Amino acid sequence: MFYDPVESTFYAWCVERLLRSASAAPYLRDGVVELGAGSGLPIVEALRRCEAPVQVRGFERDPESFRIASRLVALKAPPNYSVEPGDFFDQGFDGPERVAIANPPYLAAPTGDTSAPELWGGESGAEVTCRLLSGPFDVLMLMMASIADPLGVIDHAARLGYLVVDWCARPIPFGRHSREPAVHRRLGELHAEGRAFSSEAGYLLAGVTLLRARQRGRPTSAGRESGPDGSDPDANAFDPNADVLRGVMAAGASVRRDP
Questions:
Q1: Domain ranges of the chain
Q2: CATH superfamily of 5-249
Q3: Mean pLDDT in the chain?
């Protein structure tokens, strides 16, 4: 099981921020579902700090991680947090929750060529993230990495009708897994394509809260009818938060910097 204390602590803080959010409050009443509970520690910490009564249901498909998370939940978690075994994409879409949270895997490498397959996010690093965005949720709080096609992710979210309502970012140093040869080579390719951005020491990780501005097939917030897939090509035009986030994630793009 992969565990990084810096990233875990930041994820917990972003979840706590969501649980205190006024814009998300109407949707939180039906609970929150989590992709990849991992150790379970971030959600335990977030719920204990903010004392939110919101029900949170995490899914973990790795047996060892599920065992660790289950033990932690039994010992330290408030009663409104539970962890279930299984794949989020098989089971997490069918519940009552309208809010989903995740620190999805975002390391890019061809065909999962990495020593930590649980960190693999596809060839762009953003495949799991985009799959989440294509789900049924009204609110998403996702961790987005500047090395995993962040501009493409933001644009994909906009096409699906999501607005950026809140975000915060912090630097993350390159670690052992992000320095692996296959990952290193793929990041170089993504950087050359303008799809990955980093400094010599690391990259940015942002906790981004997205709110679906309208339902599929209904009028958009700009008064236009959305297409049959719910997409709105001009969604970016009325989302200044997304524009700022794009600029932050792409900072330093003009210089090639190796991890």
A1: 5-249
A2: Vaccinia Virus protein VP39 (3.40.50.150)
A3: 85
